[in-house]
Each structure stands twice: as C-alpha cells, then as structure tokens.
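Quick illustration for those who missed Monday's session on complexes.
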Amino acid sequence: MRNLILVMTNRLGRMLAAIGLVISLGLTGLPAHAEDSPTIAKPITSASVGIQMFGWNWNALADECTNYLGPNGYDWILTLPPQEHKTGNQWWVHYQPVSYKLESSAGTRAEFAHMVSDCNAAGVKVVTDAVVNHMAGGRGIGFAGTEYENADFSPLFAANDFHSGLAKSDPHYCSTDISNWNAFDERTNCKFPGLPDLATEKSSVRQKITDFLNDQLSLGVSGFRIDAAKHIQPADLKAIKSLLIRDAYFVQEVAGSNTIAQEYLGTGDVWAWDQQQFATDMFSSPGYANLGKSFDAASREYGLGDQALTWVTNHDTDHHGGGVTYNQGKLYQLSFAWILSEPYGKPMLYSGYAFFDENAEAPQNVSGKIEKPYCASSTEVKFNKKIPTESTYDQGDFTCVERWKPLTGMIGWRDAVGDGVKKYVYAKTGVYGFARGTQGYVVFNSNARSFSASKLKTGLPAGTYCDHYSGGKSPIKLAGKTCSGLAVTIAKDGTLTTKLAGLSALAISSASRLK
Ligand code: LM2
Ligand code: CA
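Prediction with calcium ion bound:
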C-alpha cells in the first residue's frame, strides 16, 4: 500500500513538475520551484531507508528500482559518480573526473536519464556521488574521449582553476599533497594525493560545478553525496548549493571525524563516523552485539543531531577495509538489521560485488563498460553453510543486499515502529534487544549458539506476533491469520520467552500481530 501511494504521488508529482517547469521556463527562463519537484516532495528523513548501489550500471539499476528497490521499501539509492572519468579497470577511476559529461562506464547520458526516471517512478529517489573537489591526476584520455593533461581539462577547467595553478601569493595556493588531514587550509587547498584540487572559491569554478549538478537535477536527481567534502570549504559548498535550480539533498563525506563533520551541518547531512565504529565493534565477530547498550549515550555526543547518516560499510571500507563486509556472512546481515532498528540516524545500506583484488572494478566488457550484475542469490546472503560468519561469493558476483528478505522485513519493522522511543534495553553476552515505544520489539543474537530468551520485557500487548526478520516484507498472510516467518507469543505481562537461533534476530511489531 505504502508503495502504491508512493508511486501514485510520484506520478502526480511528476506531471505537476513537468507543467511547472514548462510554465516557469516559458515565462521567466528560470526553472521550476522546489515545491513542484516530485523527487523532493518527500524529503529524506530518518523514516527513509537508503542503499548505496556500488558498481551497478544504469540499465541494470533502472530494472532493480522497478523490480526490487521500490517494492522492497527502499526510499533512495546512492549511485556511482555519473561523470566521465579516467579509464582503467579499477573502481576508483570514477573518483577521477575528466569532464562533467554524463558518460561513464556505468552508461550513457540517455541511460542515466532513463534510470533516474524509472527509479523515481518506483518511488526510489536518486542521489549521485558528486566528485567536485578534484579532477583526474596525470594525463590521458577519458572514458568519453576527452583528452587531459596536467590539470588542463579544457574547455571545462584550465590550470588556473586549480589551487596549484594560482599565483603563489594567493592565500589558497597549494601545489603539494595533503599531509596534515585535519588542518583547515591544508586539507581544503592542497591535493587529495595526486589529484588536482579545484579552486572552489572562484565563482567561475563554482558555476561550472553548479551547472554539472543542475544538469542532473533537471533529469530528476534528488541529491548528492559530496565526495571529499572535508576537502572543500563549507563556504564554497554553501555558495554552490545556493546556485542550484532547486533544493537538493546533500550528504557530505567528512571522513573520520564527527567534530570536523559539524562544520558542514549548515550545508546538509553528514556520515556518522563513530556510529560506523559501533557497527564494526558489534558485528565483526560473534558475541559482541551487547555493546549496543552504550550506543544511545554515545550518539548523543556526536553532535550531529538529526543530520547523521548511519552506515555499516561503504565502497571505501568494503574495498580498503575498516568495516563489516559481505565476507562476514550472517554477521553482515545482522549489522544492517541493527542500523535499520535504531531510532538514531538515516540508515544507508550497501550493495556491491565480491572481489579478490581490492582495486577491481565490477566486471566490464571489452569496451570497458560495466556489465549487468549477476546476483549470486536472488534473495539471501550467500553464507558458508559450515561457517556462517563467512561467505561464498565468487569474484564479480553481486551481493544484491536490496533483495535480502530479513532486511526488507526490517524496513517493514522500521516503518511500523515509526518514532517509537527506545526502552527496555536488554544487553548480555552477545545479545542486544529493545522496544520502540509500544509499537515493536527487536532482539539480536550475535552469538554462534542459540539464545533462550526468558521473560524479556517488550512493552507489547499480549498476543501472537509474526517475526519481520524471518518473515520478510509482508510477514502476515491470509488476513492476519498466518505468518510466513517465526511466530512468537507475548505473555500477559508483556514479556517474551522464546528460543532464538544463533546469528539471527527477531523483530515484532503491532503491525505483525496475528489475529
Ligand atoms: C572519497 N571520499 O572523500 C572517496 O570515498 C574515495 O573513494 C576516493 O578515493 C577519495 N575520496 C577521492 O575522491 C578513491 C580511492 C583511492 C584513489 C582515489 C582516486 O580510495 O585509492 O586513489 O579514489 O581515484 C588512486 C590511487 C592512489 C593515487 C590516486 C591518484 O589508489 O594511490 O594516489 O589515485 O593517482 C597517488
Ligand atoms: Ca579542495
């Protein structure tokens, strides 16, 4: 139902937006008002669930939005950087722009536009990765044929559009790589190692970046992940944002530090770095989920308010290490379920591909285009049957996390508990559970062995409830009479007594109560 409504409001919104665009362009030459945009009609909030779709080409992503992401309740996706990039078979070539043409190994401009429109129609907003701090290093020919050499990207940027090409007397001049990653001037003016750093204080540079983002907004994109935001001055981002044709969602990459991230709250959301550390501590190996008991107090200290994105892994930690990954099988699945259960933050999941070489791009064809993903398993994590904390993906298999039943179940649970306040926290030897208001209860067993829950206080009215984690998106069938997952009973005193398998979770809600 929720999806149907979303799709309908989306369609209506798109029609209104199209009319608005025609009218306003016709009269003033200016773009439509923000209110007319279908893509931002329902903003990204803590009620939204996002997922980074790393390594997906545009055509395949369009289909995934229609067939899985929309129907499974995902509200937004983060895509690969869409612009022309340096060529190569490493994934990180996408982080070295050569021009702002929307032509890349993920697809053509037309394919990109088609993907955005299909995703919007499925109720899934598109947030793209915006690499605007720097351009490609060295010299070469980009994916769409643009030649570049030593910070000359004409006609887009010339050498004096970079901090290394400014007069030596200019306060922003810097021609060396960053070595002190936290000092404001150095981290914003000097080079992300090897990459020419754009002079984002120049109005002409800001305008070109804005044109690039506006181009995507005009195709229906809802927002941007600002790559390397920590290396751009907040004032520059503010100026760029103010030039956009409509309000756009910004989530800024301020790696490693919640303190520096606070400098960026004026221009949008940021990733909660210390929260990811919690996910890593709780789910890297069996037996530590109970550490979650100090998460509430810790997250209050982050100073990010409701502008925090919560996460387990991204393309950097997935490839370079520093987080729970697909290699950890059932623990990986539990870690995503955990961020979906917490009231703190706007969760972003991660869906990528398996690799043996950490630099490896998703499988490409002979002309360097990313191939259609092969989903190793259509609905489930491919964990090692004997060692469930390991996985068995082959190199180049996609994990297709967006299709995993327990996670679509958890999205349903998150919707059902709404803003229910956390209470009745239970935390003991690898087990962590809590209620959300009187709307729901969740418990994680991160131990390899089963857990015998005895009289856990849930706050739920007595009755039989169906588990969202094992039951998936719509656990209740036959007018509330049957359950496609585990059914549990809440006693008259509101307590739960049940046996929970190792490395699993149980999530019940007022919406999953059997009649
Ligand atoms: C980011 N966030 O702030 C991205 O999340 C991260 O993936 C990007 O690094 C980084 N900022 C710059 O956009 C990736 C990758 C790096 C890679 C860069 C540039 O993690 O390893 O660096 O993209 O492609 C590569 C080489 C590195 C070399 C550099 C320049 O790995 O050894 O440094 O290119 O040639 C000399
Ligand atoms: Ca910079």
